[in-house]
């Protein structure tokens, strides 16, 4: 979004706001789904859009707009949990103590690469995930990812929230958050690496 | 010295700018001598840059549904409902 479009958006241009919805709606749904569940995610995000619409004039672009929208959506998700009398955003599943590093099989016992990363053909972020086949595989991977790993991935890498803020929001230690985020990223890396190497996933 | 298996964990912290000087030095030294890990870090950086765009665009129907619930006039309060103005 360029400066002119941002000014129009802040001035209340509904066409620009609709474009904002088009670009970020699915990301916000993905952000709150692991927190409130699929059945309530739409309602939470709809409320978030209403709050964002009312507040957009105050957006000053100190943060990325995705991050700004993400914070609003997370606040709405927290309000929804309070209504449901749930205390935490995050279920402690004990998964950080399990040895399930997705890249573990890529290393020899001595810690060096056994199966090093392939050389990827794409060299720009825009083209990397553009293939429809890969996008479908990515959807499946994200759907089956644990809620905790997905939450970390959506908040940090899609939403752009600072790591410390995420730990505070989720009331988890930085070391647990690091393990979960690494596993989520490693699953994505493994998928894309295999696709780049073989053309399938 | 870091092993490749450890490097892939440190790479997350490197790209999040979450390493102290000693950690950065250890990672940089390893990357100097290991082309597999250099490739891993380069491609992980590319992947992280691509993740914000991994979600599909909303359909016309979804956009219309959201827009239909918004008020016709924008109040311009700058409030997000939690007492803070600019940052929600």
Keywords:
heterodimer, A: 201 residues, mainly alpha, Rna Polymerase Sigma Factor, Chain: A, B: mainly alpha, disordered C terminus
Q: How would you describe this protein?
A:
The complex is a heterodimer of chains A (201) and B (88). Chain A is an all-alpha fold and 201 residues long. Chain A folds into two domains: 81 residues, RNA polymerase sigma factor, region 2, helix turn helix motif (Rna Polymerase Sigma Factor, Chain: A); 100 residues, Arc Repressor Mutant, subunit A, CATH 1.10.10. Helix content of chain A is 65%, strand content 0%. Chain A is built from nine helices and no strands. In chain A, helix 1 packs across helix 2, helix 2 crosses helix 4 and helix 3 crosses helix 4. Chain A starts with a helix and ends with a helix. The longest helix of chain B has 16 residues. With 88 residues, chain B is mainly α. The C terminus of chain B is likely disordered. In chain B, helix 1 packs across helix 2 and helix 1 runs parallel beside helix 3. Chain B has a domain of 50 residues. Chains A and B meet through helix 2, helix 3, helix 4, helix 5 and helix 7 of A and helix 1, helix 3 and helix 4 of B.
Kindly summarize this structure in a few lines.
The complex is a heterodimer of chains A (about 200) and B (about 90). Chain A has about 200 residues and is mainly alpha-helical. Chain A is about 65% helix and about 0% strand.
Gyration radius of chain B (Cα, Å) is: 22 Å
Average the pLDDT over all residues of chain A and give the rounded result.
90
Name the average pLDDT of chain B: 87
Count of domain modules of chain A: 2
Q: Strand share of the residues of chain A?
A: under 5%
